[in-house]
Design brief:
By secondary structure, this protein is of the alpha+beta class. It is built from four helices and 14 strands. It has a four-stranded antiparallel sheet. A hairpin with a 3-residue loop joins strand 3 and strand 4.
């Protein structure tokens, strides 16, 4: 079935199976945007699965999502009832892709019908990886494929290469700190904002421009876990999050989280191929 999608003013056609559903009301009062192709928003495009997903931006050597995956996009995928049985061994314990409900109820998580364009938080690394695979992409990882070993090496990490404009800058928006660019510095902003709404939070280099919120808003899962044993593997979410106060995130910034952790500060985006 051919699906027509008006995505950011560009009409595209997808002949894949129309398995998506319309926007749904998700946990935490999350009114789903995205949904089936035909209702795509700015910075979205049509995936082969028939869902509106974050548009890919081609940067030197690969492509990366323009934005973090939104709550609306994730809810629309969940509405297709994706099976959990085909996950890699390190995610064999993961019996559900649903966001953690206790995490979603936290006061630091956006609540109400205006949250569909905020980044999806409260999911673990296996949930993020499964979503990316389902829409024909992969969780951002190594430039040569597989997990990242050099977190701050633009020749190894796709995420870091995009954030640092190929290693040129410490901040995604340039060489020096600017508290106005991203949703990171202000402690008075104790939650996420809609993706790409901080328009200055992108590279000034044309080859890397159009990729938003790599620092701030939500931290982002990357395929960089130190082991692949299972739920307790230690991984390094990238970019730090909202409300950091004086600790302004750098592209080199990361934290620690187990593969199975779901936090109110951690989201994700996908890369391709």
């Amino acid at each position: 079935m051919a699906l027509s999608c008006a995505c950011g003013g560009v009409v595209t056609t997808d002949d894949g199976p129309g398995t998506g559903t319309g926007g749904t009301t998700g946990a935490g009062g999350d009114a789903g945007a995205g949904g089936q192709c035909g209702a795509c928003l700015a910075h979205e495009t049509c995936a082969a699965a028939g869902l509106c997903v974050a548009a890919s931006v081609t940067v030197p050597g690969f492509a990366i999502d323009a934005t973090e995956v939104t709550r609306g996009q994730y809810a629309a995928w969940l509405a297709t009832e994706p099976p959990t049985g085909a996950q890699p061994a390190a995610c064999g314990w993961n019996a559900s892709f649903a966001p953690d409900p206790t995490c979603l109820a936290a006061p630091s998580v956006c609540q109400g019908p205006g949250c569909a364009t905020h980044p999806q938080v409260c999911v673990d690394l296996c949930d993020a990886s499964a979503y990316c695979g389902a829409v024909g992409k992969r969780l951002c990882g190594g430039l040569g494929g597989g997990p990242v070993t050099g977190l701050d090496d633009p020749t190894q990490s796709r995420w870091f290469a995009a954030c640092s404009s190929g290693g040129a800058y410490e901040f995604t928006y340039g060489p020096g700190p600017d508290a106005t660019k991203c949703n990171d510095f202000l402690a008075s902003q104790p939650t996420t904002v809609p993706v790409a709404s901080k328009t200055g939070c992108q590279s000034p280099v044309p080859a890397y421009a159009g990729v938003f919120d790599l620092i701030g808003n939500a931290e982002e899962w990357e395929d960089n876990c130190s082991t692949s044993a299972g739920a307790s593997d230690i991984c390094h979410p990238r970019g730090l999050s909202f409300g950091m106060g004086a600790a302004m995130p750098l592209c080199a910034s990361s934290t620690y989280a187990a593969r199975d952790e779901a936090r109110d500060t951690i989201g994700f985006r996908c890369c391709a191929p």
